[in-house]
């Protein structure tokens, strides 16, 4: 009984570590898709780029703890550049045009990263302090995953507060509803959108940097993370950051335990559960309240 409980506890911790990554990726996509009303299929590319930056940084011998701010800053800068061109020209266009643009860019970015970082699976050289494991009820658990849980959940909650509980987050939502009214209040809607795009890209890159030590990085990871992030945002509820966090937890736990209990059908089981949630709550798990005047 004790060994079974220990094993179950370790799987819960594994699920929390994966959920933390989904939260960071989902929050960034939620900001762009829900609040900015822009379909950005290059979001997974930012996650993969952040992973590659982390691998290269940790291999360079530079201070290891700067790898994560570096991934956030560089991916945020890339998001800012893409916002200036070509994203800005497509904010007011149809979603189909946005899909065509961003999907094409994601293919280009994937090929560039494969050319620049190789097509092999790469794992970061973790610092000594994050290597090894700790004993939890008689079973070992990787130290890095504990670091990932604490860091990822803390950052996810911090950015949730920024997006959902600050005037800046309210200004972003107001820009989506009516940018002209916001402009009359003295706010620069284009600057707000640019900051939002940079923050979303930085969050994805930060998730990739943290996830490199757990998932490794390889071509195709961008597509896998993009699909999971879309599930998190859509099932969590558009315009609901709280729903995004909740769905990231659910998806992380479902995916982890599906791989343990039914490894041969893990993907099918995960998608079946997500489909069930979507059928039960077609408007999302936490639909934001709206009012009309």
From TrEMBL:
Membrane topology field: Multi-pass membrane protein
Ranges that cross the membrane: 12-33, 38-58, 64-82, 94-117, 144-163, 192-219, 225-253, 260-279
Keyword Membrane: yes
Keyword Membrane (UniProt): yes
Cellular localization per UniProt: Cell membrane
GO MF term list: transmembrane transporter activity
UniProt-listed GO biological process terms: amino acid transport
GO cellular component: plasma membrane
InterPro entries: ABC_transp_permease, BCAA_transport_permease
Record keywords: Amino-acid transport, Cell membrane, Membrane, Transmembrane, Transmembrane helix, Transport
Family affiliation: Belongs to the binding-protein-dependent transport system permease family. LivHM subfamily.
Name this protein carries in UniProt: Branched-chain amino acid ABC transporter permease
